[in-house]
Amino acid sequence: MNYKLPAGVPRWQLPLTLPPSYSIEQHLYSAADLTVIIPVKDDPAGLSETLYALNELHAGVRPARVIVVDDGSSDAGLGASAEVRKASEAGLVVEACVQGVNRGPAAARNRGAELASTQWLWFLDAGVRPDTDYLEAITDHGHVCPAVAWTGPITSDPTGLFASYYTAQSTLSPPAQPDGQLDGFVTASVVINRAAFEAVGGFDERFRRAACEDLDLGLRLRPHGKIRYAADLLVRHRFREDEQDFRRRFRRYGFGFFQFGAKWQQNMEPWPVVARIDDPVHRQLAGMQYEELWNGWREAQAVDEAAKSEGAGLLS
Question: Which CATH homologous superfamily contains domain 31-238?
Answer without folding.
Answer: Spore Coat Polysaccharide Biosynthesis Protein SpsA; Chain A (3.90.550.10)
